[in-house]
Amino acid sequence: MIKVLRYLKQIKSDIILSLVFVVLSQLSSLSLPLLMSLIINNGIANADLQFIKNIGAIMAAISALHVVLSVFNSYYTSKTSAGYGKILREDLFLKVESLSQIDIEKIGTPSLITRCTSDVKVMQDFILMSLRIIISSPIMLIGGTIMAVILNPKLALTILAVFPIIGIIVAIVLKTVIPIFKKRQKMTDEVNRFLRQKLSGIRVIKAFNTINKEDDIFSEKNQRLSFLVLKLQRIMSVLIPVCIVLVVVALDTIIFIATKNIDTLSDPVKIQNTVGDLQAFVIYMIMIVAAVTMSAAMFVIVPRANISAKRIKEILELESQIKDPEVAKDIDNSQKGKVEFENVSFSYEDGENNVLSNISFVAEIGKTTAIIGSTGSGKTTVANLLCRFCDVKEGRVLFGGVDVRELKQKELLSKISYIPQKPVLFSGSIRENLLYGDENASEEKLKKALDISQSSEFVFALENGMESFISQNGTNLSGGQKQRLSIARALVKDADVYIFDDSFSALDFKTDSLLRKALKENLSATVIIVAQRVGTIMNADKIIVLENGKIVGMGKHAQLMEDCAVYREIALSQLSSKEVLQ
Ligand code: GTP
Ligand code: MG
To answer: Which residues surround ligand 2, an ion (CB under 5 A)?
Structure first.
């Protein structure tokens, strides 16, 4: 909890102001019942009108002050909690951004989202309630008790008797509530995970007609979550009334003790005094009741915040597996754009076998290197290792003559333009998406990127051209349009190496070949093309054939046709005998 709360340091002045106003507004309210009893005891009992007027005026002034202080109190406590939430969310977002793909997969995207949103909200509420309740309850409780003791020590004893009983009830509730809170947060994560996965696959669910089945699974999870919420509410709905009943019993006892001897009193002034004290007493008791009830709410908020703080801390403390070196090297300028894999082996953390074994190749500067192989042969993994989204298990990946682990990640990624296998577009205009590649790119550069990627035709056929809106993940575009736009975005970026991971798979043959031709004419950088279609890569300067994570052939098309059985098999299955001989 402490680690997550240390952000409060950044909003110290707001916290101090909140505290000052909370304390002042509570103190001002504490004085009112006492003044009221003074009016009854001294003013009314002695029929002293002037005294009543004077004290009445003081009471009115204090009440007005109380209102003003309360407004400031609300303002600063809200400002503090909103400010805290903002700082915490910002830091969490920065942290999540710095994590590697593997780290993110470990916690899971839905859980990350819940932690950055609802857990932060819990912490925000906790700060707000703490400032308002944790500070004001003790003041009301202790202040009310002290005032009651000053007023009449004998009567005040009845109040003290209630405290230990409340303590016992709270201890019992805490023991039962905390484990349920933990379960509830976990269940919320699970419901979120389920919803996210199923909503993004809604078309598949509909196509396979499995909506009823998914409904049943969701109902079951939802039921479990609402059961936990209900259970918590049930416990809380018992706690608060029990506390109130206890205090009301104490209140009755006070009135009973105070009025027990009233009929034996003959002096009207004494009777008035009893009434005045009793009046003030009842108000102090009500204050104490309010303080106790609010504290009971704290016993829910604190454990809940504790669980959320732990979940947030888990992210803040997560060490990214991919770290920058302490002393980073610079790329060797004479080898700019050269990529070299040296005996690289790799396996995913959760997998047992090597996904890549002993991979060695060089992608020459300014040349096109292609990687081909059946699905699951490790092509995307090669691209991931080059971008250092994960680290090799054995061997080295050299970029510009330097091991990628010795380069700053930012430096490395600024030199690579990567088109992932699954094109990802963000909601916004086409222009905004293109500018992702380089925010300062000129209009001319954007148009050229659209031209090369064969997107101009369909983009400018749209009513708003480059200003047309793309919905999240490009759902309002076809697969091939998405691929072309993500290629255009990558081309807007000036890089030493361009990696196309199966980026032509959704294009028809004609567009595919026009695009490759335009790329050849316009790109002088190193190009790495991952593909499953021989047609896409047969003109590459070097073709690497992967099978089961091993290189089984390397060279040009004609040579591979002769000496690589795997390549020959792929080529013959896809091309006509005339095309093969090209
Ligand atoms: P296609 O894109 O289908 O053509 O395959 P690819 O050649 O790009 O294969 P990729 O490099 O994606 O995967 C190679 C192997 O690694 C496959 O056997 C996958 O099952 C495995 N793999 C890929 N990603 C992960 C991962 O995140 N975790 C684990 N454990 N295995 C993975
Ligand atoms: Mg792949």
So the answer is: 379-380, 421
